[in-house]
Amino acid sequence: MTLRALQLTCTLKPSPAPSSSQKLGNELLAELASRGVETEEVRIVDHHVAFGVTTDEGTGPDGRVDEWPTIRERVLAADILVLSTPIWMGQPSAVCKMVLERLDAETAETDEDGLPTMLGKVALVAVVGNEDGAHHTSAELFQALNDVGFTVPAQGATYWVGEAMQGTDYNDLDASPDPVASTTRTAAQRAVHVASLLTSEPYPAPPE
Q: Domain NADPH-dependent FMN reductase-like, which positions (predicted)?
């Protein structure tokens, strides 16, 4: 069975602005695609995703309809979720945190077999920033995603951080540095391996 991957890009910049988070995440998608995975991407700020912790926040007081339910359907259809975020003030972006808050609703959701909706899905993280903090940001995202039910493979993150106190972005680089490219390839390989295993041998029902 063909695996499917979805990237949620959590840049603060709406399209068509260039995004370092999108660039690194797309490089991860390309590595997944080279391994036979079907891929797609959603840039969150291009959609009206309401603040909240439910699967559907409905229509807001401004008359705008929450678009998270449509994005959620794409998450549910994916075997691998890629969460890409910049670092701001040593933290994942506010957009990324909002995505985690919306995913929090899944702790109370189950599938037709009574299992958590995100159980059996694999999560990868892509982080970019101009200062150190990639490990801290990855740790925050891994913990939250694991709580919801995602499986994080070994070495399931790729990241780039530039020299402190300067203005070069990942998007400004002509090519990915070799260590970053190697890490991206490894993360993709690990994700495909784990996702394939979970597809053929799903998690059992929780013990009674």
A: 16-156
